[in-house]
Amino acid sequence: MSAVPVPYRVASARPETADSVSLELVAQDAPLPGFSPGQFAMVYAFGVGEVPISVSAIDGATVTFTVRSVGAVSAALGRLGPGSPVGLRGPFGTGWNLTGTADADVLVVAGGIGLAPLRPVVHRLLGPAGRLSVLVGTRTPADLLYPDEVAAWGGTARVEVTVDRPDREWSGSVGVVTALLDRVEPGPGTAALVCGPEVMMRRTADALLARGVPADRIQLSLERNMRCGTGHCGHCQLGPLLLCRDGPVVDCAVSRQLLSVREL
Amino acid sequence: MAVDGGSPGPPDGSGVIGTDGLAALVEILQARGFTVVGPTVRDGAIVLDELASAEQLPYGWGVELEAGSYRLRERADRAAFANAAGPHSWKTYLHPARVRQWQADRSTGRLSVETDEPAPHRYAFLGVRPCDLRAIAVQDRVLLGGQHRDPVYQGRRTGAFLVSVECTEPGGTCFCVSMGTGPAAGPGYDLVLTEVADPGDHRFWIRSGSPEGAEILARLPLRPADPQTVDAAREGVASAADRMGRSMPEVDLHRLMAGTLDAPRWDEVAERCLTCGNCTMVCPTCFCTTTQDVTDLTGDHAERWRLWDSCFDLDHSYLHGGPVRASAPSRYRQWLTHKLGTWWDQFGSSGCVGCGRCIVWCPVAIDITEEAAALNDWAGRRDARSGGEQP
Amino acid sequence: MTEPQRLLDGLPDAHRDGLLALARDREFPADSRLFDEGGPADRFWLIRSGEVALDLYVPGRRPPVVETVGPGQLLGWSWLFPPYRWHLGARTLGPVTAREFPAAEVRALCEAVPELGHELAVRCAAVIAERLQATRLRLLDLYAPDGGDRS
Prior knowledge:
The structure holds 3 protein chains of 3 kinds. Chain A is of the alpha/beta class. Chain A is 20% helix and 35% strand.
């Protein structure tokens, strides 16, 4: 029953950056149905509350969530160690639509924590996609998620990372992630998957549209307040969409106009 | 006191009962284990409550309804159902304001989560207006019609016995006709009554709409449905349809809501709107809820409670440090565009059933039919200026 | 398309050819300084490959990098208006190939062909606007935990 948390256990808790931790979870008893990249779970910290978090790695019945500490619940989750119980409800929502990506030109654009929901789709595409490019924007080099993995992806895909603010050791790109688009030249044949702060997604979407990427081939992972995850509480509305059910992954043909209405 | 075992009803599932028949209906339902809920007078209004007997129905009570105003008045006749738009709707029982969803325990080291057993009783709703009957159907779609079903609503809705009552006395704020939901009852009832409150022969034309309804109908002290009663009943409903106090503009409301997101009217209505959320509380289709997690002192036992919520609440759209819909215009716009517009996109129907409660119970008398008309006027003028209809 | 063309996109052929005639292809090794803050802005480049870091002179620190410019992008717009001095310094990160344009000759050509001058000024303004937008976004610090909202 999707309203009741299923008991899971932390198999490993891996600090990723100063304020985020990846929790690898295994079911205590029967696991939930399989997650697809882009889907999310309502993750329950005992006695504190639930937050919606997109799955950041899928390995059979083991699922990983990268949690950034921004409130009481996420902070509580961030303090968990191996063996701690966690409640999980899901999988909820629409995942990344991978139809038409085999042998195609696929562009993944991640901003900040937005790399977490995109990581499992990169895992799926490294190989099948005709040409995979991954552009990552982050605040500082220390805030880059999964740096070793990102570097490893460069063996099979075109990977570019940029920071808003370099540190002394950084010898890579400095600037916004959209400035990297010139290097990969997306166009009418590209399928794009974008995730990050909403402003970044709007700018990236507009830059892609300006380069001729079709609106229905630009997917964004949107976010609104979520309480139930099952389409019953009304909180996650964005105009006609219930993001827990019609999202969080929504293509630009559906969502671009909605994102420009103030306070929708 | 005839309870079970009354004369078998006519084979076509309809008949006429008197007020004794209505009393018998309540007794039969109670004898079968139903909790009977219906309208009754309390605290200066006609509210919904558990009924011990049919005597508690609001016989002889009417209401005067206007925007921002609700007054009980004594009627000249003894009609029980010649009133409308009380502050309660059936969602109070089907989609309760406060309910525990589950309990969790970790004292053994293992996390265990339990739900409560569903309540064993079944509800019988006596006096479901056609607008409210539609509202139940609308909430059915929201809470049961998607990929996930709400177990609390399901437990209460399955097995609920609905006795609908058609309207013969619309209120000044009713607009069920323009929303296509009344004053005649649509499908979904187990039994339907139409009151004919003639002094000396106060009776109801009763029909069944389900096998269980037919079975219970057969046990009532019925007389055959005579043509005079049927005509009087039909005439009462037809004349009610002509006496609606209000109506929505006859336009595609879904399209209107989508096309007026930037209308200045939202700012105007927000100058009056208190964002108190009364409309969402009394609306029979509003379903928003929020959750509350509590623990005991040991920290090993936790519960999740679900409570009614309102899109007028600032926390409703909280995201990353603040509400997405911070301003009053944006929250009023969310409510109305959802109710009349995006509900279609999300659930395939309108969210509004024309009951008029939001108009009555708004402390500053905001009238959504007036707001919709104003938006329609603005859209018409805008489209005329731009030389054609907007997409 | 193998050339970095955006600055030149859509220019009438005669104007484009006139500009390109002034340019020459350059190669720079890694970690070489192209120019220093305050120096004469006597050239500009369209980067073809590699990346250039723009930095600022801050006493007591290795010059912090404020932005990098990569393939397809314009490096240098201070040549367009007086005092024709660089606002930032530039250093190649890795090996860089670029088309190099001499500033004084390009300005002279723009004086002689006002339409070209106008076109170039508008296009450079667009690049500057894009850089400014990007910088403003970075100032917002949207990737920060609170989305950059400090109360």
